[in-house]
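STRUCTURE:
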């Protein structure tokens, strides 16, 4: 039961990261700085950086999908744990830019915490 729950949660996170990346690539105005103040979706420089972030999210999500689909639960757990660095860094970027703490803690750090829990469940499965 633990293994099934862990794998379902890992699938959800993996597919969500890919979907978020694709959505942000197609509609960067939705992301609009992901918590960085003073950014505007119509800024071509910001849109370029958001496209870079979208590509990173798609690639990271596909790596998680591959690990969950083709690997063992512990392998998927280690990869999920390694991927935690991305939302943690995103949160630190928002905080460093004096962005909304709600975005840093409620979105980025919360995502990192959920990923750690899922990784531990996969490692225990």
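SEQUENCE:
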């Amino acid at each position: 039961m633990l293994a099934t729950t862990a794998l379902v949660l890992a699938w959800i996170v993996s597919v969500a990261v890919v979907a978020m990346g694709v959505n942000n690539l197609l509609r960067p105005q939705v992301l609009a700085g992901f918590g960085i103040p003073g950014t505007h979706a119509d800024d071509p420089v910001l849109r370029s950086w958001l496209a870079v972030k979208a590509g990173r999210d798609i690639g990271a999500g596909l790596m998680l999908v591959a690990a969950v689909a083709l690997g063992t639960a512990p392998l998927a757990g280690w990869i999920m744990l390694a991927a935690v660095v991305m939302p943690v860094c995103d949160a630190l970027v928002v905080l460093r830019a004096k962005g909304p703490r709600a975005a840093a803690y409620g979105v980025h750090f919360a995502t990192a915490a959920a990923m750690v829990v899922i990784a531990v469940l996969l490692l225990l499965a």
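REMARK: The chain has a mean pLDDT of 88.
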